[in-house]
Amino acid sequence: MGLKLNIILGSTRPGRAGPVVAKWLERAAIEHGRFDVDLVDLAEFALPLLDEAAHPSLRQYVNEPTKKWSASVNTADAFVFVTPEYDNFPPASLVNAVQVLLREWSYKPAGVMSYGGVSGGLRAAQVLRQLLGNVNVHALPQVVPAPFFSKFIGDDQVFTPNDEMRSGATLMLDELHKWAAALKSLRSD
Q: What gap in Å lies between CA 179 and CA 48, rounded to an integer?
């Protein structure tokens, strides 16, 4: 396949529902068949809040969590961020994870799958898309929202999306693949 997709689980909150949603998206991306897929859980990195002294453009990281996070992001050709909505925003853990790096994000496309209540996390997705543009990520207009997402989680803790979510994910993955292939030649490192 060649192109690597990191599905980034943005919530680090205890008791979070994000892993259930992200695991469904991981399966959908694998079945899509156009990417090598890696599910990346921010909670496993334990990133402190912007604790690097040097500007991220210099890549002079001294802290191990930042070094590991940098390596994970650097190896990807594309991203899908799985995010809840907290007070109309993505979680602080996800915002921090984007801001602690810079060059690792450049010239790569990203999609968003959001989940929440009535808005399906769309307000958080819009804020995240703006933030991603500031670190030179091509944020796709296609967002896959999951409104009232808990209705789609069964007793077995498996997320079973509706047809709109499934077709939205397929469209997003199709577009991600096109952009990832096109942008790869622009990256020098």
A: 31
Query: How far is residue 63 from each of residues 9, 41, 48, 99, 103, measured CA to CA in Å?
Result: 21, 18, 9, 15, 17
Let me know if domain 4-184 sits in CATH 3.40.50.360.
yes
> Is residue 46 left, alpha or beta, with left meaning phi > 0 and alpha meaning psi from -120 to 50?
left
Determine the longest span between alpha carbons in the chain, in angstroms.
Answer: 47
Q: Tokens in use for 15?
A: 């008791």
Q: What is the pTM of this model?
A: 0.96
Is the pLDDT at 1 greater than 80? The verdict is no
Cβ neighbors of 30 (< 8 A, separation 6 or more) are 37
Provide the sign of the torsion angle of the four alpha carbons 116, 37, 33, 188, taken in this order.
positive
Q: Name 65's bridge partners.
A: none
Instruction: State pLDDT tens for residues 117-167.
Output: 999 999 999 999 999 999 999 999 989 999 999 999 999 999 999 999 999
Distance CA 102, CA 49 (A): 15
